[in-house]
Amino acid sequence: MSQELRQARSELEDAVERADDDVREDLRETAAAFAEYASDDATPDHAVFDEHLNTLRQARERATGDVETRIDSALERAEEYRQGIEQA
C-alpha cells in the first residue's frame, strides 16, 4: 500500500474517534476498505475507489471541526493514491 493510502487511513481512524454517529460509520467503512487493500496488496479499480472518495466527500459535508479537517486530509492523500491506479 502506498504511503498516501496509509496516511489517508490513519486520518480516517483518527476522525472516527471524534465523529458524530451519522459520519462515523462511513468513515469506519472507508478506513476498513483501505486496510483491506493494504492487507491483500490488492489494487482497487477506479470505479470502486471513486465510490470511497464520494463517501468521504459526503461525510465531509456532514462533519465539523477537526473531523472535517481530517477528512479533507484523508481525501487529499486518497486522491493522490488514486492517480497511481492503473485503469483497466
Task: Describe it.
82% of the residues lie in helices and 0% in strands. The chain has 88 residues and is mostly helical. Helix 1 runs antiparallel to helix 4 (65-83), helix 2 (21-40) runs antiparallel to helix 3 and helix 3 (46-62) runs antiparallel to helix 4.
What's this model, at a glance?
The protein has helices at residues 3-18, 21-40, 46-62, 65-83. It is an all-alpha fold and 88 residues long.
Distance between the termini: 19 Å
Low-confidence stretches: none
| Helix percentage | over 70%
What would you report as the Rg, rounded to the nearest angstrom? Answer: 12 Å
**Order of secondary-structure elements:** HHHH
Provide the residue-averaged pLDDT.
89
Secondary structure blueprint with pairings:
Blueprint: H1 3-18, H2 21-40, H3 46-62, H4 65-83
Characteristics:
single chain, 88 residues, 4 helices, 82% helix
